Amino acid sequence: MKKIITDEKKIEEVLTRSVSKIYPSKEALKSVLLSGKQMRIYMGIDPTATYAHIGHSTNYIMLKKFHDFGHKIIVLIGDFTAQIGDPSDKNALRKKLSIEEVKNNLKTFKKQIGKIIDFEDKKNPVQFVFNSKWLAKLSFAEAMDLASNFTMQQMMERDMFEKRMKENKPIYMHEFFYPLMQGYDSVALNADIEIGGTDQTFNMLAGRILVKNLQGREKFVITTTLLENPITKEKLMSKSLGTGVGLDENPDSMYGKIMAQADVNIPQLFTDCTYISMDEIDKIKNDLKNNQANPRDLKMRLAYEIVKMYHGEKKAKEAQENFIKTFQKKEIPEVMEEIKAKTGELLSEILVKNKILASKGQWRRLVLENAIHDLIENKNITDANFKISQNLTLKIGKKRFVKILV
User: What is 337-405's CATH number, 3.40.1280.10, 2.30.30.140, 2.30.30.40, 3.10.290.10?
Assistant: First the structure.
């Protein structure tokens, strides 16, 4: 077994950086980690889209650090739970996915996550598992037995269920089973620690209850900060909204999407999505606060660091050079018109409705003339029925620039 690292300073950082709360307490978990005991630590992800995004990277970076400490790491793919749909943070029923949709979505997940987690480590192998292995085998009697560990009152205390009740929106019985299933993952994996975003707190604590009741032991829960705009509180990365920066993005697209982030998001993106030291990040925060640094320059460093993590230093340099050629040397304004839109809306309708274009006829003509350019993806929009799926920065004609914010 690989020697367990018990350096107090390193443990303190991993239990502080990007951490919202630890259950039952930070002190209790720190004590176990300092003891040198090898812990079984996992993080689960449902393949509800074809990509993982840098919002998930916060948890994988933490897993990597625990792996470097010598602990046993498990990456769980919720291929079974993805078919049900996690009701967390949703004000309406999630769309249920078919087995075929789930299989298609998870095709490249291991490759994407492997850009952070070392699946090739032979001395301390990382497990890559699917929860259909045990959840698909549960009998109805066993599912009822799991349900007996919770009350209806506990389930109804969830914020999104309370909100739906007030708005007279339906709550379906199968939605109550999601936390039971995620909770049972902890039992099946014999997990000591589960890591997840704050939106997963209820589900992870359900696992803590099941581990206590069924196995008579403690399970620690580490909730990590979600990437949010500190002013609007809107999520920066969302698979369901199509606003995530995917781990499988090409270098130019990844760099451009980071540069499109609001200035106020810079400190948290450095903290949650890079390996830059907290001392450096504290200096960045101070420079921003005292107007001692140009936010654009800090974002360029941020974009460079993130692209380097997933594509290497050479590609990061190329992406930065391409960005400079595309944006700075073409005198693209840093401030431009911003329009809000919803995923799935036709871009043509949004531009006409907001009087950016006079008519759909003008839209079609500009598309045919290759005069609508997506600056983030660095390509022309050639589909007259183009639908919005993520934030866009557009150059329309020779002089008009506009941002579409999902």
Answer: 3.10.290.10
